[in-house]
């Protein structure tokens, strides 16, 4: 009899389903220190450098990063050195580290992503009709 009473006290099938759904959709918080990020930057450079010549060329970058090649290639020599890559990547980290505590949290990361998506267009990206109207 006591077994039946204890069994009846557990969560219902609906509660179990809700708990399982919450567990499956759980995303752990993101926290990364600048020091740890430096290691990630180095490993990523090595993975991208497919021909192991210690520089990245445009064809070695992902389609998402390829448009930023000239920005990352600070000296304009046609290749991104590990130093250029690290400097650019750490600047991105520092930009996301809003409170300057040396770590980037989930909240800081998401805020930086949202701000980047909401960037205002440059004058070159404005429609021709607006540019013509502004010139008057």
UniProtKB/TrEMBL annotation:
Region (Disordered) location: 96-136
Q: Which residues form the EF-hand domain?
A: 69-95
Composition bias (Low complexity) maps to 121-136
Question: Where is there biased composition of kind Basic and acidic residues?
Answer: 96-119
Superkingdom of origin organism = Bacteria
Family annotation (Pfam families): EF-hand_5 (PF13202)
In terms of InterPro entries, this protein maps to:
EF-hand-dom_pair, EF_hand_dom
Q: List the protein's name.
A: EF-hand domain-containing protein
Species per Swiss-Prot/TrEMBL record: Sphingomonas corticis
